[in-house]
Amino acid sequence: MKIDRYDQQILDILQADGRINNQDLADRIGLSPSPCLRRVRALEESGLITGYHAQLDAKKLGLSLMALIHISMDQHTPERFANFEATVSLLPEVLECLLITGQSADYQLKVAVRDMDHYQALLLNKITRIEGVTGVHSSFVLRQVVSKAALSVASGAL
């Protein structure tokens, strides 16, 4: 999909404020409401906009411990990876699962848990019991320095 400066502005604004109403969005980018709404719908239908989400404060929810877990698998087969991915996608503590390269691990998980006991239960009762998991290396987040969900629209190759 080819996007112009209006679409870029729409994407930037919606990433910062997904609850903005169409009139305010149109005013901010200098379009009338009708063409603005058509553009937003076209961006949604193209799949460029995949959804709208509320960002929550993990600590206020009692999830005060965040960990990055590197997972090594015994076999590099599509079936083994598919089973692992399907299983971790069902774990509510898993915020992110990345298939990675350049490390001794195959996957990196980002998890949010209440405390070390919760982490231990997740690791020992769920993650290490997934068929094919042979190695686990954990790092604990001391402080989150940067956290962005917004993508840079201007620097993309659109």
From TrEMBL:
InterPro entries: ArsR-like_HTH, AsnC-type_HTH_dom, Dimeric_a/b-barrel, Tscrpt_reg_AsnC-like, Tscrpt_reg_AsnC/Lrp_C, WH-like_DNA-bd_sf, WH_DNA-bd_sf. GO terms for biological process: regulation of DNA-templated transcription; response to amino acid. Pfam families: AsnC_trans_reg, HTH_24. Residues 3-64 form the HTH asnC-type domain. Keywords: DNA-binding, Transcription, Transcription regulation. It comes from the Bacteria. GO terms for molecular function: sequence-specific DNA binding. SMART domains: HTH_ASNC (SM00344). GO terms for cellular component: cytosol. This is AsnC family transcriptional regulator.
